[in-house]
Protein backbone atom coordinates (compact mmCIF):
# COMPACT_ATOMS: atom_id res chain seq x y z
CA UNK A 1 0.00 0.00 0.00
CA UNK A 2 1.44 3.36 -1.01
CA UNK A 3 0.67 6.97 -1.87
CA UNK A 4 1.61 8.75 -5.08
CA UNK A 5 4.14 11.56 -5.24
CA UNK A 6 2.37 14.75 -4.01
CA UNK A 7 3.31 16.84 -7.07
CA UNK A 8 1.98 14.14 -9.41
CA UNK A 9 -1.24 13.89 -7.40
CA UNK A 10 -1.68 17.66 -7.65
CA UNK A 11 -1.17 17.64 -11.44
CA UNK A 12 -3.64 14.79 -11.85
CA UNK A 13 -6.28 16.53 -9.75
CA UNK A 14 -5.83 19.66 -11.87
CA UNK A 15 -6.21 17.67 -15.09
CA UNK A 16 -9.50 16.20 -13.83
CA UNK A 17 -11.12 19.67 -14.01
CA UNK A 18 -13.02 19.01 -10.80
CA UNK A 19 -15.88 21.06 -9.40
CA UNK A 20 -18.46 20.58 -6.65
CA UNK A 21 -21.14 17.99 -7.31
CA UNK A 22 -19.22 15.69 -9.67
CA UNK A 23 -19.51 11.92 -9.19
CA UNK A 24 -16.02 10.36 -9.06
CA UNK A 25 -14.66 6.83 -9.50
CA UNK A 26 -11.07 6.14 -8.43
CA UNK A 27 -9.21 2.98 -9.46
CA UNK A 28 -6.48 2.18 -6.93
CA UNK A 29 -7.21 3.06 -3.31
CA UNK A 30 -3.73 3.26 -1.79
CA UNK A 31 -3.79 4.88 1.65
CA UNK A 32 -6.95 6.85 0.80
CA UNK A 33 -5.30 10.28 0.73
CA UNK A 34 -6.25 10.96 -2.88
CA UNK A 35 -9.84 9.85 -2.24
CA UNK A 36 -10.03 12.30 0.68
CA UNK A 37 -8.73 15.13 -1.53
CA UNK A 38 -11.30 14.28 -4.19
CA UNK A 39 -14.08 14.37 -1.58
CA UNK A 40 -12.98 17.80 -0.36
CA UNK A 41 -12.98 19.23 -3.89
CA UNK A 42 -16.34 17.82 -5.05
CA UNK A 43 -17.94 18.77 -1.75
CA UNK A 44 -19.36 15.44 -0.55
CA UNK A 45 -17.74 12.19 0.55
CA UNK A 46 -20.62 10.16 -0.90
CA UNK A 47 -19.66 11.35 -4.41
CA UNK A 48 -16.33 9.49 -4.29
CA UNK A 49 -16.00 5.74 -4.84
CA UNK A 50 -12.56 4.14 -4.66
CA UNK A 51 -11.79 0.56 -5.73
CA UNK A 52 -9.02 -1.89 -4.90
CA UNK A 53 -8.70 -5.62 -5.53
CA UNK A 54 -6.67 -6.29 -2.35
CA UNK A 55 -8.95 -7.00 0.60
CA UNK A 56 -6.32 -6.14 3.23
CA UNK A 57 -5.70 -2.73 1.61
CA UNK A 58 -9.43 -1.99 1.50
CA UNK A 59 -9.92 -3.00 5.15
CA UNK A 60 -6.99 -0.96 6.44
CA UNK A 61 -7.66 2.14 4.33
CA UNK A 62 -11.36 2.13 5.17
CA UNK A 63 -10.42 2.08 8.86
CA UNK A 64 -7.93 4.94 8.40
CA UNK A 65 -10.41 7.04 6.41
CA UNK A 66 -13.08 6.52 9.07
CA UNK A 67 -10.64 7.55 11.79
CA UNK A 68 -9.78 10.71 9.82
CA UNK A 69 -13.45 11.64 9.40
CA UNK A 70 -14.04 10.31 5.89
CA UNK A 71 -16.33 7.36 6.64
CA UNK A 72 -18.78 8.19 3.83
CA UNK A 73 -16.27 7.70 1.01
CA UNK A 74 -17.25 4.55 -0.88
CA UNK A 75 -14.46 1.99 -0.47
CA UNK A 76 -15.06 -1.20 -2.44
CA UNK A 77 -13.03 -4.41 -2.77
CA UNK A 78 -13.32 -5.49 -6.41
CA UNK A 79 -11.45 -5.70 -9.72
CA UNK A 80 -10.95 -2.04 -10.63
CA UNK A 81 -10.72 -2.86 -14.33
CA UNK A 82 -14.45 -3.63 -14.22
CA UNK A 83 -15.40 -0.40 -12.48
CA UNK A 84 -18.38 -0.23 -10.15
CA UNK A 85 -21.74 0.02 -11.91
CA UNK A 86 -24.01 0.63 -8.85
CA UNK A 87 -22.77 4.24 -8.54
CA UNK A 88 -22.55 4.95 -12.31
CA UNK A 89 -22.64 7.09 -14.36
CA UNK A 90 -19.47 8.88 -13.31
CA UNK A 91 -18.44 12.38 -14.29
CA UNK A 92 -14.77 11.61 -13.73
CA UNK A 93 -12.79 8.36 -13.59
CA UNK A 94 -9.19 8.44 -12.38
CA UNK A 95 -6.78 5.50 -12.27
CA UNK A 96 -3.77 5.62 -9.97
CA UNK A 97 -2.38 2.33 -11.28
CA UNK A 98 -0.56 1.59 -14.52
CA UNK A 99 -3.03 0.23 -17.09
CA UNK A 100 -2.38 -2.10 -20.01
CA UNK A 101 -5.41 -0.70 -21.84
CA UNK A 102 -8.42 1.52 -21.41
CA UNK A 103 -11.19 -0.49 -19.76
CA UNK A 104 -14.44 -0.85 -21.73
CA UNK A 105 -16.25 -1.04 -18.37
CA UNK A 106 -15.06 2.47 -17.53
CA UNK A 107 -16.35 3.72 -20.86
CA UNK A 108 -19.77 2.15 -20.24
CA UNK A 109 -19.91 3.73 -16.76
CA UNK A 110 -18.78 7.20 -17.88
CA UNK A 111 -21.25 10.03 -18.35
CA UNK A 112 -21.33 11.43 -21.90
CA UNK A 113 -19.82 14.71 -20.69
CA UNK A 114 -17.27 12.97 -18.46
CA UNK A 115 -13.56 12.26 -18.78
CA UNK A 116 -11.08 9.56 -17.80
CA UNK A 117 -7.51 10.16 -16.59
CA UNK A 118 -5.28 7.09 -16.55
CA UNK A 119 -1.62 6.01 -16.84
CA UNK A 120 -1.17 3.79 -19.90
CA UNK A 121 1.76 1.37 -20.04
CA UNK A 122 3.84 2.15 -23.10
CA UNK A 123 7.28 0.69 -23.90
CA UNK A 124 8.48 0.63 -20.29
CA UNK A 125 6.88 3.79 -18.93
CA UNK A 126 3.37 5.18 -18.28
CA UNK A 127 2.33 8.35 -20.12
CA UNK A 128 -0.74 9.94 -18.51
CA UNK A 129 -3.74 10.04 -20.85
CA UNK A 130 -6.86 12.14 -20.64
CA UNK A 131 -9.79 10.94 -22.76
CA UNK A 132 -13.47 11.68 -23.14
CA UNK A 133 -16.48 10.09 -24.82
CA UNK A 134 -18.57 11.88 -27.43
CA UNK A 135 -22.30 11.45 -27.98
CA UNK A 136 -21.37 9.16 -30.90
CA UNK A 137 -19.38 7.02 -28.42
CA UNK A 138 -16.04 8.05 -29.95
CA UNK A 139 -13.20 7.93 -27.42
CA UNK A 140 -10.47 10.51 -27.99
CA UNK A 141 -7.86 12.34 -25.96
CA UNK A 142 -4.21 13.21 -25.55
CA UNK A 143 -1.13 12.75 -23.38
CA UNK A 144 -1.07 15.29 -20.55
CA UNK A 145 2.02 14.17 -18.63
CA UNK A 146 4.26 11.36 -17.44
CA UNK A 147 3.58 9.18 -14.42
CA UNK A 148 5.06 6.20 -12.63
CA UNK A 149 2.61 3.74 -11.09
CA UNK A 150 2.59 0.07 -10.17
CA UNK A 151 0.67 -2.09 -12.69
CA UNK A 152 -3.01 -2.66 -12.12
CA UNK A 153 -3.82 -5.90 -10.30
CA UNK A 154 -6.60 -7.54 -12.29
CA UNK A 155 -7.88 -11.03 -13.02
CA UNK A 156 -7.93 -10.26 -16.75
CA UNK A 157 -4.95 -11.27 -18.88
CA UNK A 158 -2.31 -8.69 -19.71
CA UNK A 159 -1.27 -8.41 -23.35
CA UNK A 160 2.47 -7.78 -23.66
CA UNK A 161 3.15 -5.46 -26.61
CA UNK A 162 6.77 -4.38 -26.15
CA UNK A 163 9.64 -6.80 -25.42
CA UNK A 164 11.22 -7.37 -22.04
CA UNK A 165 14.07 -4.94 -21.56
CA UNK A 166 17.38 -6.72 -22.17
CA UNK A 167 20.16 -6.72 -19.58
CA UNK A 168 22.67 -4.41 -21.28
CA UNK A 169 25.27 -3.90 -18.56
CA UNK A 170 27.08 -7.29 -18.75
CA UNK A 171 27.50 -7.18 -22.56
CA UNK A 172 28.07 -3.47 -23.19
CA UNK A 173 31.86 -3.72 -23.47
CA UNK A 174 31.50 -6.54 -26.01
CA UNK A 175 29.20 -4.59 -28.33
CA UNK A 176 30.31 -2.75 -31.45
CA UNK A 177 30.66 0.99 -30.85
CA UNK A 178 29.21 3.27 -33.56
CA UNK A 179 28.92 7.06 -33.74
CA UNK A 180 25.68 8.87 -33.00
CA UNK A 181 24.04 9.65 -36.31
CA UNK A 182 22.99 13.07 -37.58
CA UNK A 183 22.52 15.64 -34.78
CA UNK A 184 21.26 13.14 -32.22
CA UNK A 185 23.78 14.28 -29.61
CA UNK A 186 22.07 17.69 -29.43
CA UNK A 187 18.88 15.93 -28.34
CA UNK A 188 20.46 14.62 -25.16
CA UNK A 189 20.50 17.03 -22.24
CA UNK A 190 23.68 17.44 -20.22
CA UNK A 191 21.69 17.23 -16.97
CA UNK A 192 23.00 14.63 -14.57
CA UNK A 193 19.59 13.23 -13.64
CA UNK A 194 18.78 10.28 -15.89
CA UNK A 195 15.09 11.15 -16.37
CA UNK A 196 15.79 14.86 -16.94
CA UNK A 197 18.21 14.05 -19.76
CA UNK A 198 15.94 11.48 -21.39
CA UNK A 199 14.64 12.50 -24.88
CA UNK A 200 11.00 11.73 -24.04
CA UNK A 201 9.46 13.07 -27.24
CA UNK A 202 11.73 11.13 -29.59
CA UNK A 203 11.47 7.96 -27.51
CA UNK A 204 7.68 8.12 -27.65
CA UNK A 205 7.81 8.44 -31.44
CA UNK A 206 10.33 5.59 -31.64
CA UNK A 207 8.12 3.34 -29.53
CA UNK A 208 4.97 3.94 -31.59
CA UNK A 209 6.82 3.36 -34.86
CA UNK A 210 8.70 0.23 -33.76
CA UNK A 211 7.42 -2.10 -31.03
CA UNK A 212 10.97 -3.32 -30.40
CA UNK A 213 11.72 -0.05 -28.54
CA UNK A 214 13.04 -0.16 -24.97
CA UNK A 215 14.88 2.07 -22.52
CA UNK A 216 17.15 1.44 -19.55
CA UNK A 217 18.05 3.46 -16.47
CA UNK A 218 21.21 1.46 -15.73
CA UNK A 219 23.08 2.16 -17.89
CA UNK A 220 20.92 5.07 -19.12
CA UNK A 221 19.89 4.83 -22.75
CA UNK A 222 17.34 3.54 -25.23
CA UNK A 223 17.12 1.64 -28.49
CA UNK A 224 15.66 -1.41 -30.23
CA UNK A 225 15.80 -5.02 -29.11
CA UNK A 226 14.96 -8.04 -31.23
CA UNK A 227 15.39 -11.47 -29.70
CA UNK A 228 16.41 -12.94 -33.05
CA UNK A 229 18.54 -10.15 -34.56
CA UNK A 230 20.16 -8.30 -31.65
CA UNK A 231 20.31 -4.94 -29.88
CA UNK A 232 21.01 -1.36 -30.86
CA UNK A 233 21.46 0.89 -27.82
CA UNK A 234 21.95 4.66 -27.78
CA UNK A 235 24.07 5.74 -24.81
CA UNK A 236 23.87 9.52 -24.17
CA UNK A 237 26.58 9.41 -21.49
CA UNK A 238 29.02 7.61 -23.82
CA UNK A 239 27.96 9.77 -26.80
CA UNK A 240 27.76 6.72 -29.03
CA UNK A 241 25.57 3.88 -30.23
CA UNK A 242 26.24 0.28 -29.21
CA UNK A 243 25.30 -2.54 -31.57
CA UNK A 244 25.16 -6.28 -31.13
CA UNK A 245 23.84 -8.23 -34.10
CA UNK A 246 22.09 -7.02 -37.23
CA UNK A 247 23.08 -3.63 -38.68
CA UNK A 248 19.47 -3.38 -39.82
CA UNK A 249 18.49 -2.39 -36.27
CA UNK A 250 20.86 0.58 -36.39
CA UNK A 251 19.48 1.62 -39.78
CA UNK A 252 15.89 1.24 -38.57
CA UNK A 253 16.54 3.49 -35.58
CA UNK A 254 18.26 6.07 -37.77
CA UNK A 255 15.38 6.01 -40.25
CA UNK A 256 12.81 6.59 -37.49
CA UNK A 257 14.84 9.50 -36.11
CA UNK A 258 14.96 11.13 -39.54
CA UNK A 259 11.22 10.62 -39.97
CA UNK A 260 10.62 12.32 -36.61
CA UNK A 261 12.85 15.22 -37.68
CA UNK A 262 11.03 15.53 -41.02
CA UNK A 263 7.74 15.82 -39.09
CA UNK A 264 9.23 18.78 -37.15
CA UNK A 265 9.88 16.71 -34.02
CA UNK A 266 6.37 16.33 -32.55
CA UNK A 267 6.15 16.25 -28.77
CA UNK A 268 4.01 13.78 -26.86
CA UNK A 269 1.36 16.46 -26.43
CA UNK A 270 1.04 16.92 -30.21
CA UNK A 271 -0.74 13.61 -30.76
CA UNK A 272 -4.44 12.93 -30.90
CA UNK A 273 -5.14 9.49 -29.42
CA UNK A 274 -8.29 7.52 -30.15
CA UNK A 275 -9.44 4.19 -28.78
CA UNK A 276 -11.43 2.05 -31.21
CA UNK A 277 -12.91 -1.26 -29.96
CA UNK A 278 -11.07 -4.10 -31.69
CA UNK A 279 -14.43 -5.42 -32.88
CA UNK A 280 -14.93 -2.24 -34.93
CA UNK A 281 -13.16 -0.94 -38.01
CA UNK A 282 -10.88 2.06 -37.57
CA UNK A 283 -12.08 4.78 -39.96
CA UNK A 284 -9.10 7.09 -39.49
CA UNK A 285 -6.59 6.28 -42.22
CA UNK A 286 -4.39 9.29 -41.51
CA UNK A 287 -2.57 7.96 -38.45
CA UNK A 288 1.05 7.69 -37.36
CA UNK A 289 0.63 4.39 -35.55
CA UNK A 290 -2.00 1.84 -34.54
CA UNK A 291 -1.31 -0.30 -31.47
CA UNK A 292 -3.56 -3.28 -30.76
CA UNK A 293 -4.18 -3.69 -27.04
CA UNK A 294 -6.50 -6.05 -25.14
CA UNK A 295 -9.82 -4.31 -25.80
CA UNK A 296 -9.02 -1.37 -28.08
CA UNK A 297 -6.90 -0.34 -31.03
CA UNK A 298 -4.97 2.72 -29.88
CA UNK A 299 -4.90 5.02 -32.92
CA UNK A 300 -2.26 7.75 -32.75
CA UNK A 301 -2.29 10.70 -35.15
CA UNK A 302 -0.87 14.22 -35.29
CA UNK A 303 -3.28 16.97 -34.32
Short description:
The chain has 303 residues and is α+β, with helices and mostly antiparallel strands. It has helices at residues 6-15, 33-42, 55-67, 104-109, 184-187, 200-209, 247-262; strands spanning 24-27, 48-52, 74-77, 90-95, 110-119, 126-133, 139-147, 176-179, 213-217, 220-226, 230-235, 240-245, 271-277, 289-292, 296-302. This is Protein-L-isoaspartate O-methyltransferase.
Write a structural description.
The structure is a single chain. The chain is α+β, with helices and mostly antiparallel strands and 303 residues long. It folds into 2 domains: 6-147, Rossmann fold (3-Layer(aba) Sandwich), CATH 3.40.50.150; 169-262, no CATH class. The protein is built from 7 helices and 15 strands. It has helices at 6-15, 33-42, 55-67, 104-109, 184-187, 200-209, 247-262, and strands spanning 24-27, 48-52, 74-77, 90-95, 110-119, 126-133, 139-147, 176-179, 213-217, 220-226, 230-235, 240-245, 271-277, 289-292, 296-302. A 10-stranded mixed beta sheet has the order 3-2-1-4-5-6-7-13-15-14. Helix 6 (200-209) crosses helix 7. The longest helix has 16 residues, at 247-262. The relative contact order is 0.11. The mean pLDDT is 91.
